[in-house]
Amino acid sequence: MPNLPAGVGYTESMITVLAGDDSFAISEHLKEAERDFAGTAERVDGAALTIRDLPDILMGSSLFADRRLVIVRDLAKNTSLWTSLPDWLHRISDDIHLILVDDNIDKRTRTYKALKEQATVYELSTWSAHDQPKAEAWVMAQAKESGVALDATTTRFFVQRVGLDKWALAQALDIVSHLDVPVTRADIESVIEAHPSENIFALLETALQGDAKKVKQMIDTLEVKEDPFALFALLSSQVVQLLALTQADKSDNPEKDFGIHPFVASKLKRLGTRIGHRGVKLIGGIIAETDAELKISRGEPWLLIERALQRIATL
């Protein structure tokens, strides 16, 4: 559910701005607004509007209802109307609840500054790696609301396995809600397919353990369902994090600088300690060489990736 201020719903006349790329949170906000509105919401493509449309949308009344809920998407993409919107805000009828939905609003604009003063603005951005604690807190809250028993350790594993996409997390929570409680790590592994990042970490860890045969088996499995370039991008990211953690000075804070979750950082540090600084640098070199080869299409992608991991396994 949307994180609305305590005691505030969408029943009063207002202007609301939903800004950002978190489509799940935006969807939840819109559902809340429509639940609180006794009628049918009007949905408008803001990018296609002209100045002549604004009076009907912002000031017009309805013959069939006392109030209106008007949802306008992508108005910020309509430069001429977006620029003139501040001049219209005070004209919006009291019986209209206007919701503006935009994934990319320039905060430097006069319009955004006017909306910050006169509207309720929600910044709704998707989570990145450093937001894992937020994701874990969100999952625990959602699980509690749904009657799913997840402790902190199991929740951390759940987020690691599913990833940080709210749609995927919500779907996975729905799946585990049908299991016996309390839900265990084994339960999650049995019904939730691992997120690519978890598979890639397991792949890197296997290579670092020197198990070349298992690396081959894992590559054969991943080749069926993963894009090689996307997989290599994740692999490269994890190696960069490994380098950052093992080469950092005492005054550095690579976890914060690179957005590495403490749980992931601890696993990478253990691996880094075992293989040593020289080994980590050699791994960085192997990944850099493979990246260059992939960019110039020197060989079949999966073969290049497997060769890189086999080289790491023999260090």
Structure class: alpha/beta
Provide the CATH topology of the largest domain.
Zinc Finger, Delta Prime, domain 3
CATH class of the largest domain: Mainly Alpha
Rough shape?
Answer: elongated
Count of domain modules: 3
Q: What is the CATH-assigned architecture of the largest domain? A: Up-down Bundle
End-to-end separation: 49 Å
Protein traits:
3 domains, single chain, 315 residues, 56% helix, elongated, five-stranded parallel sheet, disordered N terminus, Rossmann fold, Zinc Finger, Delta Prime, domain 3, alpha/beta
Brief account:
With 315 residues, this protein is of the alpha/beta class.
Question: What's the helix and strand layout?
Answer:
Elements (H helix, E strand, L loop, with lengths): L14 E5 L3 H13 L6 E4 L8 H6 L8 E6 L5 H6 L11 E7 L7 H9 L1 E4 L8 H15 L5 H11 L3 H11 L8 H7 L4 H13 L3 H14 L2 H20 L6 H4 L4 H34 L5 H13 L2
Helix pairs in contact: 5-6, 5-7, 9-10, 9-11, 9-14, 10-14, 11-13, 13-14
Structural notes for this entry:
By secondary structure, the chain is of the alpha/beta class. The protein folds into three domains: 15-123, P-loop containing nucleotide triphosphate hydrolases (Rossmann fold, 3-Layer(aba) Sandwich), CATH 3.40.50.300; 129-191; 196-313, Up-down Bundle (Zinc Finger, Delta Prime, domain 3), CATH 1.20.272. It has 14 helices and five strands. The chain has helices at residues 23-35, 54-59, 79-84, 110-118, 132-146, 152-162, 166-176, 185-191, 196-208, 212-225, 228-247, 254-257, 262-295, 301-313; strands at 15-19, 42-45, 68-73, 96-102, 120-123. The chain has a five-stranded parallel sheet, with helices on both faces. β2 (42-45), α2 and β3 (68-73) form a beta-alpha-beta unit. The longest helix has 34 residues, at 262-295. It is elongated. The model is unreliable at 1-13 (pLDDT under 50).
